[in-house]
Design brief:
By secondary structure, this protein is of the alpha/beta class. The chain folds into two domains: 13-129 and 224-260, D-Maltodextrin-Binding Protein, domain 2 (3-Layer(aba) Sandwich); 132-214, Periplasmic binding protein-like II (D-Maltodextrin-Binding Protein, domain 2). Helix content is 31%, strand content 22%. It has nine helices and 15 strands. It has helices at 13-19, 69-80, 95-100, 115-118, 160-168, 180-188, 199-208, 233-249, 251-260, and strands at 21-23, 46-51, 60-62, 65-67, 84-89, 106-107, 121-123, 128-130, 132-137, 152-156, 173-177, 194-198, 212-214, 222-224, 227-229. It is elongated, with a radius of gyration of 18 Å.
Length: 271
């Protein structure tokens, strides 16, 4: 979605280092034989991707592994470049700083292309569409986005949902949490009236938590893309090339179907 107002307060590089926790992906691969000599990475032989593994189905943990749509995309890109994918799991609002400061080669975390973010990083071509939706309890008096005025809204800090609630809901109290699951729990525990979050993670949370529903009317329509350090055109061009190939050879559809059951129709989305 278009940037609404200033979203990111970039963390200092030291803070990024402290927040980074290594993780593995079941789909990581370093066996590719099509590496590009023109691409240099933070660590030789590796493609380090920064994420926040609290965003099912895009990235989440199964045991000590980070899996999901973005994990599989990152592994495939690394393989095509002849590199080993290495995940760094951190707070969402530290990802841009990690990429900008050279601690990670790319950021992929269900991240929306926004004008404010474009001031600090470059983005790939979009790889999927998404949108912000509202989660409430089944018996909630909140029936439409207009009903959010004056309510307490739980969000994951630094996300588009955070921006929307802060900038567009009159009189709202915005409670920020480090994880989407914590924001949802706030509604279940009657600490908040609603959650604003991306549609696909919203589906996963509602499916796992009886008594919650997603309102029919979506708040936004937006696109997800991969962030790289500003000016790193060699890597950006390679990522764009591989994303285009994934669309053409069916790999992107395969990954989406793996985690979404084949349903890629985001016109219903507001899933």
């Amino acid at each position: 979605m278009k940037s609404l107002k200033k979203l990111l307060a970039l963390s200092a590089a030291a803070a990024v280092l402290m927040s980074m926790a290594g993780c593995g992906s079941k789909t990581e691969s370093g066996t590719g034989d099509t590496g590009s000599a023109s691409v240099s990475t933070v660590s030789e032989g590796k493609l380090i991707w920064a994420t926040n593994a609290e965003f099912e189905p895009y990235e989440y943990r199964e045991g000590d592994q980070v899996v999901g749509i973005d994990a599989d995309i990152s592994a495939y890109i690394a393989e095509q470049l002849g590199l080993e994918a290495q995940c760094e799991d951190m707070a969402f609002d530290s990802i841009i700083a990690a990429v900008q400061s050279g601690k990670a080669d790319m950021g992929i975390a269900g991240m929306t292309i926004e004008e404010d973010r474009l001031e600090n990083v470059d983005f790939s071509t979009p790889y999927t569409d998404a949108g912000q939706v509202i989660i409430v309890k089944e018996d909630s008096p909140i029936k439409t986005p207009a009903d959010l005025a004056g309510k307490t809204i739980a969000v994951q800090s630094g996300t588009t949902g955070d921006t929307y609630a802060t900038d567009n809901v009159d009189g709202a109290t915005v409670d920020r949490y480090s994880k989407g699951a914590e924001a949802v729990m706030a509604v279940l525990q009657n600490k908040a009236d609603a959650v604003i979050i991306d549609n696909r993670p919203a589906n996963a949370y509602v499916e796992k938590n009886p008594g919650l529903i997603i309102l029919d009317e979506p708040l936004t329509v937006e696109q997800y893309a991969i962030a790289v350090k500003k000016g790193n055109t060699a890597l950006l061009n390679e990522i764009n090339r591989i994303l285009a190939e994934m669309e053409e050879n069916g790999k992107m559809a395969e990954i989406m179907a793996k985690y979404l059951g084949g349903n890629e129709d985001l016109s219903e989305a507001a899933e």
